[in-house]
Design brief:
GO biological process, one term: regulation of mitotic cell cycle
Protein name: non-specific serine/threonine protein kinase
Largest sheet: none
Number of strands: 0
Distance between the termini: 35 Å
Transmembrane segments: 18-36
Number of helices: 5
Keywords: ATP-binding, Kinase, Membrane, Nucleotide-binding, Serine/threonine-protein kinase, Transferase, Transmembrane, Transmembrane helix
CATH class: Mainly Alpha
Strand content: under 5%
Helix content: 40-55%
CATH topology: Transferase(Phosphotransferase), domain 1
Structural class: mainly alpha
Radius of gyration: 13 Å
CATH architecture: Orthogonal Bundle
InterPro entries: Kinase-like_dom_sf, PIM_Ser/Thr_kinase, Prot_kinase_dom
């Protein structure tokens, strides 16, 4: 499940987009308590997924990570700069 879809299609992947995919799966599991099913992934790919438990911001981050096309995923460096992941000192 943590393996990005491009690996299943052509057996290859790039490290950073694959890491973003894996982080998206992990975040989904953490907030939803289960792995995304095909229906979830279909809705996520259309940026039409929401869940009443996590915030809209959290749903947006999950959708940004779990785009089927790696070119449409959030960039790892951008993800690190997102407000949710910034640590206050």
């Amino acid at each position: 499940m943590f393996c990005p879809p491009e690996f299943d299609v052509d057996g290859r992947y790039h490290a950073k987009p694959a890491t973003v995919w894996s982080l998206g799966i992990l975040l989904f599991v953490m907030v939803c308590g289960s792995y995304p099913d095909d229906k979830d992934l279909h809705m996520i790919s259309k940026n039409d997924w929401s869940n009443p438990d996590p915030s809209q911001e959290c749903c947006w981050i999950i959708c940004s990570c779990l785009q089927l096309d790696p070119q449409w995923r959030i960039i790892l460096e951008e993800m690190q700069l997102h407000d949710r992941f910034m640590v206050m000192k």
